[in-house]
Amino acid sequence: MFKLKKDEFGDSIKNKVYEFRVLKRLTQSELAKAVGVSKQTIFVMEKNNYSPSLVLAYRIADFFQVDIKDIFTYVGKDDNND
């Protein structure tokens, strides 16, 4: 069995969790509790150092009552100019 390195494909998931959370005037702890994760998970997600599972991404979108694509964006290798 082989393992791929995290950045081998050069793609990522960007998110707007921070923006949505601040607009709702929620703390990281409050959002974490609402979607069933730790505060640390929200923290690293907001820093774009963690891509959530698909289930968690849907939970967050459902919590904010928006489409998942309003919060999470796939950035392909050729689109990632960071």
UniProtKB/TrEMBL annotation:
Keyword field contains rRNA-binding: no
SMART domains: HTH_XRE (SM00530)
Keywords: DNA-binding
One example GO MF annotation: DNA binding
UniProt-listed CDD domains: HTH_XRE
Domain (HTH cro/C1-type): residue spans on this chain: 17-71
DNA-binding recorded as keyword: yes
Xref: SUPFAM superfamilies: lambda repressor-like DNA-binding domains
Name of the protein in its database record: Putative transcriptional regulator
Annotated source species: Marinisporobacter balticus
